Every structure is written in structure tokens, then in C-alpha cells.
Amino acid sequence: MSNANNFIPYQRETFDAHTMQERARSFYTWMDQRRTVRDFADTPVPKEVIEDIIRTASTAPSGAHKQPWTFCAVQDPAIKTEIRKAAEEEEYTSYHGRMSERWLKDLEPLGTDWQKPFLETVPWLIVVFKKAYEVGADGEKQNNYYVNESVGLACGFLLAAIHHAGLVALTHTPSPMNFLTKILDRPENERPFLLIPVGYPAADAQVPDLSRRPLEEISRFY
User: What is the model's pLDDT at position 1?
Assistant: First the structure.
């Protein structure tokens, strides 16, 4: 049984129904403007902004509150170059053999290919690692729970925070991503989950003309 001394009163602002509806709709309208961008400006972004974005991501729920994530923020040009080189090697192999014809066909409307110059252009790369387990002070392995679900939720919070700050991002998943563990010298219990370039869009940035599925297609109310 939990010790009551480990709990504190839950306090936060509440809203009437009208205000809730206004806030829900305005947040949806804002988030509906979020797009994945592949053309970034090299305009600097203050480190403090990235720090607060990561802080927001860390407020996500996690299994048993284990918080099984590490966010590596990369600004160093030499490291970004190393990451781009390794990522493009994996992407080239994927586009020339790993991906099925159907997969490649599905990617055509997005205009993607194996070349990833944005990995060097963008001011920040946030590499999200999931912690498969924790390592105690005595070196003993300690379980984490619902790791993929927890880190996935944190990445959702991260993308929302990036958009809220007025920046753009790309969820990049070169596969396999083991090179990130080596380049960033991460411990054995951490596994790369997402590679997210973060910055301002280039002045001439374009995105595919896409539409989102309407509410009636993505939901059921009972």
C-alpha cells in the first residue's frame, strides 16, 4: 500500500465548459498547422529554448514513473556531419534494396530520398534514446516498464513543444540507428528511438499538399 506521505494535493486551474471548448478548439487549430519539414534554415536557436522543449517532453507519463528516456541535443557541427554521413549510408542501403517496391511507391508523394543534408543545416538534432533498463549503483540491472509506449508519449510531447515554440521538426528514423549509440557514446542500456532535426523552416521550404483524416474516420463515440 502506498504511503500517504508520498502524495501531495493535486492543484491546477479548471475551466467552465465554454472556456474548455474554446481552449480545445484553439489548441487543435494551432496543432493542425504542424507539418513535417525537410528544408531547414541554419538560423541559430537558443540552447535555453531546446532545454525547455526537452523539459516539456519529460513531463510525459511513463510506466511506474521510470522516465526511461535520454534526450541528446546535438549542436556541434562535427558531430552533425558524422551523423549525416552514417545516416545516409543506412538510408542509401534502404532505398536501394531494403525497402519494398510498395514502400518506395508510398514515399513518392513525399519526395524523400537517401540524401539528408538537413542533418547538417539544422541548428539542433535531438536524438531520443529509450532506456531498456536502468543500471543500479552496484551495476545490477533494474527493470523499466512499457518503455516504447513511454518514450513514444514523450516524443509526442516533444513535437508539440517544438511546434508551440514556433519551430519545425522532422521525425527521422534511419534504420538501423545503432550508429547513433556509437557516435554519441551512449551506454549499453540506451537504444536510439528517434532522430529529430529542430530549427526554423528555410525561406523557400515547401511541404506536400496533404489532408488529415476527418474526425468521423478516426474516432468512434459510444
Answer: 39
